[in-house]
Amino acid sequence: MFDLINKKQKDFFSPVKTLQNRIEHLFNNFFEDFDNFTSDSGLAKTFRIKVNIAEKENAYEIDADLAGIKKEDIELKCENKILIIKAEKKEETENQNQKKNYHRIESYHGIFQRSIYLPDNIDEQNITADFKDGRLRITIPKIVRPEEKSKPIKIK
């Protein structure tokens, strides 16, 4: 008898539980899809250039993680105070005689881009970059402006 009541309760709440699961699934997928739309490359799940940005007294430093990408496949430019890092990871081609029977492929390839808005106090003409071991280090010097001192104005 107790099992019969328990089964009836489960059957009664089953549609509610199903609805709750569907709503949770909907919200989880919404935020995953939102991440895809907000990424610069549109490939947030596959690859997104990750950066660390630090400010020092005389410069900003940006450290970009570009593991697996060759130096010649990176394009770096600054346009109107926007730093653009563009990289391409080329698909590896196999010799036809050496075909592999893959069970899973998680490597990525394609063109990826990241745009970073820079502050007004930068010296665009003297930005430097260094690439080593999959890390792109960009140094953006600040413009040193003399402090404006207040000047008394005589009233006539």
What is the CATH level 1 assignment of the largest domain? Mainly Beta
- According to DSSP, the number of beta strands is 7
Which range does the strand content fall in? 25-35%
Q: Helices and strands: which structural class?
A: alpha+beta
3D structure, described in words:
By secondary structure, this protein is an alpha+beta fold. It has one helix spanning 2-38, and strands spanning 50-55, 59-65, 74-79, 82-89, 110-117, 128-132, 135-141. The model is unreliable at 31-46 (pLDDT under 50).
Search tags:
156 residues, 7 strands, single chain, 24% helix, 4-stranded antiparallel β-sheet, flat, alpha+beta, Immunoglobulin-like, 3-stranded antiparallel β-sheet
Summarize the structure.
The chain contains one helix and seven strands; from the N terminus they run αβββββββ. The protein has one helix at 2-38; strands spanning 50-55, 59-65, 74-79, 82-89, 110-117, 128-132, 135-141.
What is the element layout, followed by pairings?
Layout: H1 2-38, E1 50-55, E2 59-65, E3 74-79, E4 82-89, E5 110-117, E6 128-132, E7 135-141
Antiparallel strand pairs: 1-2, 2-7, 3-4, 4-5, 6-7
